[in-house]
Amino acid sequence: MLPKNQRLRLAQDLTATVRSGVRSGRRNVVLYARHRETEEFQGDRFGFIVSKAVGIAVKRNLTKRRMREIAQVRRRVDGDVDFVVRALPGAAELSWEELNSQINSALAAVLRKIEAR
Fold first, then answer.
1. Is residue 29 classed as helix, strand or coil in its secondary structure?
2. Is the separation of the CB atoms in 91 and 58 below 8 Å?
3. H/E element, 24
4. Which of 17, 33, 83, 95 is such that its CA lies 20 to 30 A from the CA of 11?
5. 23 DSSP 8-state letter
6. Which residues contact 60 (CB under 8 A, 6 or more apart)?
7. How much is the pLDDT for 102?
8. Dist. CA 11–CA 89, nearest whole Å
């Protein structure tokens, strides 16, 4: 589980990241990232969006738990980036390996875009 200070929990934080951040889409996930100017928090923060289009509650929760675990492994303690991972409807049907590779690929792409800015 991600520590409380490394989760995006407020709607305004999620909205700001989605609207003003860089974006990288894959077949079943879209990842948004935004460089955080404030030094209020240390480390990368992650937020997750899993809509009802993904499936019933059991599938949505399973998908969100998997995405949280992938984020837990990939988070940087010294980072200053906010990430939002949006699951698209096919995400619930993916195996662990497929979901992991799509998120990691999108994560690498948005980090390259942020560094280029």
1. strand
2. no
3. strand 22-25
4. 95
5. E
6. 50, 51, 52, 54, 87, 92
7. 97
8. 21
Three-state SS across 56-99? CHHHHHHHHHHHHHHHHHHCCCCCCEEEEEEECHHHHHCCHHHH
Residue 81 token pair: 């980036």
Token output for 18:
């989605």
111/96 Cα distance (integer angstroms):
22
List the one residue out of 99, 49, 94 whose CA is nearest residue 70: 99
- pTM exceeds 0.85: yes
How far is 91 from 18, CA to CA, in rounded Å?
19
What pLDDT sits at residue 17?
95
Tokens of 92: 């619930």
What is the per-residue pLDDT across 39-94, written as a single tens digit (0 to 9) for each? 777 789 999 999 999 999 999 999 999 999 999 988 887 788 999 999 999 999 99
